[in-house]
Amino acid sequence: MAKEESTGPKWIEMPSLPSKKNSSIEAEQDYHDLGERYSQAPVPNHSDDTIIHRASLEDITGISEIMNWISEGDIVIVEMMSMISREIELQTAVSKLQKFVEDEIKGTVFGLGHNRLLLLPPDYGAKKAEIN
Questions:
Q1: Where do the domains of the chain lie, and which CATH numbers do they carry?
Q2: Rounded CA separation 82/88 (Å)
Q3: Which of these, 123, 92, 126, lies nearest to 110 by C-alpha position?
Q4: What pTM did the predictor assign?
Q5: What is the CA radius of gyration of the chain?
Q6: Strand duo 75-79 + 52-56: pairing
Q7: Which is higher by pLDDT, 120 or 10?
Q8: Could you give the CA distance from residue 38 to residue 27 in angstroms, rounded to a whole number?
C-alpha cells in the first residue's frame, strides 16, 4: 500500500472569507474597514436586526452570558449535552434560564429535543391574546 505524502493543508473556499488577496493588516495601521474584511460577521446590519447565538453550556457559570444575549434582544440556541448526566446542575440551569426569560423579560423558552433550548426575546415569542 502506497503512503500518500502530505503537501500541506487543503484549503476550502468559504463564503465568509475575504475575497481580496491583498487584505492584510499592516502593523500600526490606523484604519481597518471591518465591514469589508468580515462581511459575514455576526453583527446586526441595522439597529433592529437580531443576532442568533449558538452556545454550548458546559456548567452553570455560562448562564450570565446567555442572559446578557437574550436581554439584548438576541435569539439563543443553547446545547446542554455535557450537563445531561449532572441532573441537579441541569435542572438548576434550565430553571434559572426559564425564570429569567419567561418571568423577568417576558420572552419564550422552547425545548428542542432533550438537550437543547431555544430562547426567544419578547419580540419573537408567542403573542399573548390581549383581554379587552
A1: 50-120 (3.30.110.150)
A2: 13
A3: 126
A4: 0.60
A5: 21
A6: parallel
A7: 120
A8: 19
